[in-house]
Amino acid sequence: MIFSRVSVYVASKENHGGTGEKVAYNLRMKLFDKIDLIGSGFIQENSKGQILSRLNNDVMNIREFVSFRISEIFAQILSIVLVVVLILMTDIRLSLVYLVILPVYVICFYICDVKSRAYYDGHQKQLGRLMSYFERGLSNRDSFHEKGFKKSIKP
After folding, report:
1. Residue 64 above 90 pLDDT?
2. For residue 107, is pLDDT > 80?
3. Please, is 56 exposed, middle or buried when counting C-beta atoms within 10 Å of its C-beta (0-12, 13-18, 19+)?
4. Domains of the chain
5. How far apart are CA 80 and CA 68, in angstroms?
6. Residues 131, 50: contact at Cβ < 8 Å?
7. Cα–Cα dist 38/104, whole Å
8. What percent of the chain has pLDDT over 90?
9. Mind listing the pLDDT tens digit for each residue in 69-81?
10. Cβ atoms of residues 66 and 20 within 8 Å
11. Which helix or strand (DSSP H or E) is residue 86 part of?
């Protein structure tokens, strides 16, 4: 347990040095270049809010993964390996029970992952619709200001 905490600390010290921020910056720059190359047909078919929301959320998720999750995954794998070694050294029957339960554990996490991805996709779609709604509202507000309605609105 102590060894896994030390490994998380060491891995997080190396990752918090800006690796996640560098990855996010590089991704944003490459995505911006790709958006410039995409045809206007794609942008007209999809609302700007949905495109921007998906890009921003995906970049933030990748940044978080690179910054934090890699060290956590490393610590979890290390913990499982250490537990298996200690159980094998302690009792063979107990290690067989553990090795039978481990696939059940993996299957349960897989099912939770599939369900959470479905919820995440629904959340992304809803957030994209909300962003496109706000974008339309802001563009309508700007058109009112351009047409001179700004003077008739009293603060």
Report:
1. no
2. yes
3. middle
4. 2-146 (1.20.1560.10)
5. 19
6. yes
7. 45
8. 5
9. 777 888 888 888 8
10. yes
11. helix 70-90
Task: Please compute the mean of the pLDDT values over residues 32-61 and round it to a whole number.
Answer: 73
Structure tokens at 24: 């996010």
Q: If residue 4 lies in a helix (H) or strand (E), which one and from where to where?
A: helix 2-15
Q: How far is CA 51 from the centre of its chain?
A: 16
For residue 18, pLDDT over 60 is answered with yes
Phi, psi of 92 (to 5 degrees): -70, -40
| C-alpha distances in Å from residue 3, one per residue of 6, 73, 78 | 5, 14, 9
Say if residues 85 and 10 touch (Cβ distance below 8 Å): no
Encoded tokens for 116: 């959470």
Residue 133 token pair: 């709604």
Q: What is the pTM of this model?
A: 0.41
